[in-house]
Amino acid sequence: MVASAIVPALFLQAALRLFDPSAVKPEAEIVWVSLARGVNPHVALAVAQAETGNLPEEGNRRDRVVSKGNYGRFQVNCHTWREPMGLESCERLLDRHVNIRAGIAVLAYVQAARSAHLDGPTDWVAHYNEGVLVSSGGPGERYARRVKVLMRRHRLLAEERYHSFRGW
């Protein structure tokens, strides 16, 4: 019984060593990490788009953005999240893979703190932008509306691309 579990484990370890994360497109990486963290991939893609979507991918520009203490594609606030995420410096958030994992970890944290469900309403995403307290009619609510619009776009695009697969 134990021997039958060892072979797949060894195969998985070998595959992970051969895996090159930089060979994966950012969107695919966001989908995989969000699924692993229990965050709706459409929400994660929409948040990344809302944060840095106006910048081109060329030259890793979306991953190198620093604005008001927020870093990278997901605009993770270094002051707030550096210590909880165990980052030795804010510069680590400029690495695409670190930033995607950190941004989705923050989304998962906010989602859990708001007792949101994977397939439920997404108003909780306002807290990703504005923090613990979201003011009525404030930037967090406007951000949540923008994320919802972007989610619909991503969902329609996914349905168009993957219409033959169930679940989209």
How would you describe this structure in keywords?
about 170 residues, mainly alpha, Lysozyme, 3-stranded antiparallel beta sheet, 7 helices, 3 strands, globular
Molecular structure report:
- The chain has 168 residues and is mainly alpha-helical.
- It has a single domain (20-161), classed as Lysozyme (Orthogonal Bundle).
- It has helices at residues 2-18, 26-37, 41-52, 78-81, 96-113, 126-130, 139-161, and strands spanning 66-67, 70-71, 76-77.
- Strands 1-2-3 form a three-stranded antiparallel sheet.
- α2 (26-37) crosses α3 (41-52).
- The radius of gyration is 17 Å and the shape is globular.
- The N and C termini lie far apart (37 Å).
Brief summary of the model shown:
The chain is mainly α and 168 residues long. The protein has helices spanning 2-18, 26-37, 41-52, 78-81, 96-113, 126-130, 139-161, and strands at 66-67, 70-71, 76-77. A three-stranded antiparallel β-sheet has the order 1-2-3.
CATH topology-level name: Lysozyme
Strand order in the sheet with the most strands: 1-2-3
Radius of gyration from the alpha-carbon trace, in angstroms: 17 Å
Give the helix tally.
Answer: 7
Tell me the number of structural domains: 1
Percent strand equals under 5%
CATH class: Mainly Alpha
Q: How many β-strands, per DSSP? A: 3
Which stretches are poorly predicted, pLDDT < 50 over at least 5 residues?
A: none
Q: How far is the first residue's CA from the last residue's CA?
A: 37 Å
Report the biggest beta sheet as strand number plus sense, adding barrel if it closes: 3 strands, antiparallel
Give the overall shape, derived from the CA principal axes.
globular
CATH 2nd-level architecture = Orthogonal Bundle
Helix/sheet category: mainly alpha
Helical proportion, percent range: 40-55%
H-E string: HHHEEEHHHH
Quote the average pLDDT: 84
